[in-house]
Amino acid sequence: MFWQMVKGALLRQKGRFVLIALTVALGVSLATAMLDVAFDVGSKVNKELKAYGANITVTPRGQKVLKDVYGVDNAVGHKEYLREDELGNIKTIFWTNNIVSFAPFLDSEWKGQNGEKIPVTGTWFNKNLKLPTDEVVTTGVGSMRSWWHVEGAWPDDEQEKNVLVGTKLAASMGISAGDTVTVHTAGGTSETLSVTGIVSGGGAEEDRIIAPLALVQRLEGLSGKVESVEVSAITTPENELARKAAANPKALSQHEYDIWYCTAYVGSIAYQIEEVIHDSAAHPVRQIAESEGKILDKTEHLMLLITVLSLLSSALGVSNLVSANVMERSRELGLLKALGASNLTVVLSVLAEIFAAGILGGIFGYFVGIGFAQIIGETVFGSGIAVNVYVIPIVAVLMTAVLLVGSVPAVRFLLSLQPAEVLHGR
Amino acid sequence: MSLLELKDVSMEYNGKVKALEHINLSVERGDWVAIMGPSGSGKTTLMNIIGCMDTATGGSVVLDGVDITNAGRPELMRIRRDKIGMVFQQFHLIPYLTAVENVMVAQYYHSMPDREEAIAALARVGVAERADHLPSQLSGGEQQRVCIARALINYPVLILADEPTGNLDEANQNLVMQIFRELHEEGHTILTVTHSPEVGAAAERCVVIEHGHMKAQ
Questions:
Q1: pTM for this structure?
Q2: Gene Ontology terms, cellular component aspect (chain B) (predicted)?
Q3: Domain ranges of chain B
Q4: What is the architecture, at CATH level 2, of domain B28-56+81-216?
């Protein structure tokens, strides 16, 4: 009979409940959209920010010690290198999915036809790298230097003699894409290279040759060696724990360490990179990491604020509608009490009606919210927003809270409702 | 022992307005008593006290052996549910439930809904064929008969009727009064509050109230 009454109220008096359902739908749709965006905005903004460069650089450990202690980058006559064959390990760390891309670098200096000095950097352009897990990933400066403008074509990593030439160097040498350039190494080797493109980007690349890593290694006799690696990783904004770990990881308790290690802080990702590359030192580029963190924090706070405000307005709307509904039905509800219904039974009956309408509105609002999120994603980031299943229980809890809070005035009215007042007057 | 015994019952609102003063009334089982009086005389207040929807501020009220003078709201609710059947001038049917569902609601709060028994109660007042109609699809007379069926469904010891013919045309008034006569003949105890001399005349006994005082019995 209880559900028959609820069903009767909902089906035969639809108009009363449609507005409640729509109000809940509005609040839930905004909450769903904002939470989905908030959950996904981290990776979206992070990917956008990755265009500004790497946030971790990896160098040989000895080189870091020299720089830290003596303030010099290289020791004369002794230089340490990282092993190229270990670089694939970067994609095997705990936060592997957060590693967007990485590229190794090996610098040298060659001479041109007229004996002029030509700086050269060996790197990967868009290398298909086979990982220890047998997966293949494509990585290199092609994805890390998104601001580079190449007139011509990017070289193929497998074509050792194809290179890029910086725009200023090309101008001084009078060469353009499609030309060849002959270089001489310090060891006396000469090599004629094909220029596939002229690169500009406003940095040091404009004054040098950017060559495949394998070519520089061969000509310099440094097979399998690299000087540094730049890593672009999606990171979590730093907090007190991250700052404490950055100052001294050994100061962390075991519990703090576990939390820090299992959170994608730039410091913990750097730490994990050091674990998989021998004798390496990974340095977070904190200015970038912190800027990213601040932008992310502000964006997420904005989303959460909009969520809270939308739910508050929804609760106010529900409160008004439910109160009006209950007052309008005061005789009917007073009659139930006159027939022997307890306060609890009447309140449960009204709440069941409100929740039934609210749940229907909530389901509708959830799907509308996913649509809103996609519109926001396409408009702001140019791609869809991932639908996060964790949003469902969160929204369900928030919707329940909205309905309960919105029903408080109506429940108070119901508890004070006297059948004698509404049925006979007093 | 009387079914209903009111001794020196008074009712004051906010300690100032005296709605009833020194009312004494005794109703035996099987009686049909009409309470009459002009508007504002205190009839409805008396009805609310007898119907366990309000409590007197003075005197004592005993219904079916239970002293309800100082009963709390939950206790009054239980007595109302178990012992009283109410018929209202404005019918007060739940608009989104059918006739039979309106009768079953009273069963639900009393014990357990039984559709067949509810249909039989509707048949008793001549509206069984309208069982699955909503109140908005019923005439005033039919709605009042559904209201009577609802009042009877839990076998109350006292039927309280507040202006039961107040909203009906003459034909329906006669129909409803005929039902009350039959109920009286079956031994039901009926208390009606009315302005109507015809309804008052149909009762065995008439109590007149004016300005909160009992004038005649």
A1: 0.63
A2: membrane protein complex; plasma membrane
A3: 28-56+81-216
A4: 3-Layer(aba) Sandwich (3.40)
